[in-house]
Amino acid sequence: MRLLTSLLAVFAATAGSTAAFDVSCNSNYASYYGQNSARNQQSLGEYCKDATEDVIVLAFMNGFPNIILNFANACETTFEGSTLLHCPNIASDIKYCQSKGKAVILSMGGASGAYGFSGDSDAIAFADTAWNMFFKGKSDKRPFDDAVLDGIDLDIEGGSGAGYPAFINQLRSHYASDPSKKYYIAAAPQCPYPDSYLGTTLNSAWFDMVYVQFYNNFCGLNAYPTWFNFADWDNWAKTKSLNKDVKVYIGAPGSPSAASSGYVDGATLASIYNDVRSKYSSLGGIMTWDVSQARTSGIAKSIRAALDAGGTCKHDGGGSTTPSTSTSTSTTASTTTTSTSTSSPPYSTTSISTSTTSTSEPTSTTPANCPVSGAPCSGNQQGCNGQKFAICAGGSWYTGSCAPGTYCYLSGNTAMCDWSNGRPTDTCAVSGGASLSKRLDFNKVSLITRPNLRPKPMSAKSNRPTRVEFVAGDITDNKYSTVVKIQTNKSAFTGDWSFSFTLPEGQTVESTSRGAASINNNAVTIKSDPSNEDAKNMAAVFKIEGTFKGNYALPETKSAVFSST
For strand 283-289 and strand 28-33, is the pairing parallel, antiparallel, or unpaired? Predict the structure, then answer.
């Protein structure tokens, strides 16, 4: 295989290079490589033979500042007398992929590992090390030999947030010393906003791309459109990010087995992409975890087709992109496009839109009865009818259902869905019809009404340093799923472990995707099956499912206890 990839690199060099990756496009496709998630991972060069992906993210550097690299079956050789990986095959493939117009970046972090900075000085020193080992600097040990990467990705899912802005700033100063090529900084936050680990860093350092993980969380692709929150990240890009041209990607699982929740098929993902593209100018494209899963399931091909069909840049077949000569949007309803501000994308209002922008004050009266779909209304009124919200569009009420477990309440002139928190659940109200200053679509409404289910990671009681995190998954009617993430910070744990925690009132646990669960009142214990576990583990991620009464809530992480031999 090494001979094959070397020949590929030589062929590419003699054939001439293609146009480079264009970060400004909204039709780029990034995918992670290196963890053999589908158990059939090919060489990096194999995935670069066609134009499917635009960015390859090498996963992972899961240890730093004391560097640990892990690329599963793609590289298992080390420098003599060292534990540091030496990957000449990947080095040749990096050059080949770049010759095909693709960007290749290295991801730091991951779900398990020993990483983090003690402070700014530690981070600055490591930025110098990274430049010397992976970019244009010099080092006696370079894992990819003379190959020069195109950037760094931060997939931080543990530890503290100390030092990351300083690391990025120092690395960018090195980038500036080499004007011969473009370098990038990317991040992969989870979809709950702000991200638990990267929130502060995202607001205080320059990022070119952000691959939001819309899976394993309540705001995943499977929750579209109710709790899917691309609007949160678009708002961050335009109001909080230092780089107002930062590109936000829709992160998706490459197959049903690539994540605990969040997978949608190619047609559904294409539909979501087209909807996001029509609303949010920060969109950069789609990301998948990982390339082996996405290629095996076939969704990678569907993604490429969707991106080329509707995006701003088109492929020439070799991995390069060229700007489209024209763009078009088609709908089945008559559409009028208006621009509400210079910093926001134009919005389209149709005969079924949730609200419209009006330059004049509407004249309206408040009807005595509850808003009913199709009944007459006026202006920009909004209303509530129990678990249904209502928007006046074209002189008639348009109603929609709140997310399961939530109810409609008026906040001023705006209808919002929220937990009851002791309030009446049969509210019937209509606004006075005051003019809205900007359009509110379904995603904008969900931005301000989504339940507060953000994860609260913290140290767990354990016989070893361990962090635990509960993340809301699917919530339908009175059924829920919760993703449990257990991560050891230092030493690995064996496959013989147990985990216990306290359930919120009214919840049950009916199944677990890992081990077996037992319940005593509200106390839950999950015991692993050592025969189905690896001998050594740095993390355990699994899903519990059950039912709930009243309002769904995450378990308190302070109740978690983990033990392992």
Answer: parallel
The answer to whether 266 touches 371, Cβ cutoff 8 Å, is no
Predicted local distance difference test score (pLDDT) of residue 136: 97
Residues counted in the chain: 565
533 is catalytic: no
In whole angstroms, what is the distance from residue 251 CA to residue 254 CA?
9
d(CA 38, CA 16): 33
Residue 195 DSSP label: -
Which candidate, 563, 517, 564, 523, places its Cα nearest to that of 543?
A: 517
pTM of the predicted model as reported, rounded to 2 decimal places: 0.63
Q: How many CB atoms lie within 10 A of CB 145?
A: 13
Which DSSP string corresponds to 513-547? Answer: SSSEEEEETTEEEEE--GGGS-SSBSEEEEEEEEE
Q: Could you tell me if 371 and 430 are in contact, meaning their C-beta atoms sit under 8 angstroms apart?
A: yes
Q: Which two tokens stand for residue 70?
A: 């892990």
Inter-helix orientation angle 88-99/2-15, to 10°: 30
What are the residues facing 401 on neighbouring strands? 388
Q: Which two tokens stand for residue 266?
A: 């190619």
Q: What is the mean pLDDT of each run of 10 residues along the chain (565 residues)?
A: 36 46 96 93 96 97 93 93 95 97 96 86 98 97 98 92 97 97 96 90 98 92 92 96 98 93 95 96 97 96 95 66 42 32 28 29 42 80 79 75 65 60 66 37 29 54 75 78 76 86 93 92 93 78 88 86 87
Residue that the structure tokens 């950037």 belong to: 151
Answer whether 234's CB lies under 8 Å from 485's CB. no
Residues 46, 53, 80, 157: which is the catalytic one? 157
Q: In the 3-class helix/strand/coil scheme, how is 361-381 assigned residue by residue?
A: CCCCCCCCCCCCCCCECCCCC
> Helix or strand or coil: residue 270?
helix
Element (H, E) at 253: strand 247-253
- Angle, helix 266-279 to helix 299-310, in steps of 10 degrees: 30
Residue with tokens 């348009």: 398
Q: Which two tokens stand for residue 416?
A: 């919002």
Sign of the Cα pseudo-torsion (171, 155, 215, 471, in order) = negative
Chain centre distance of CA 4: 34
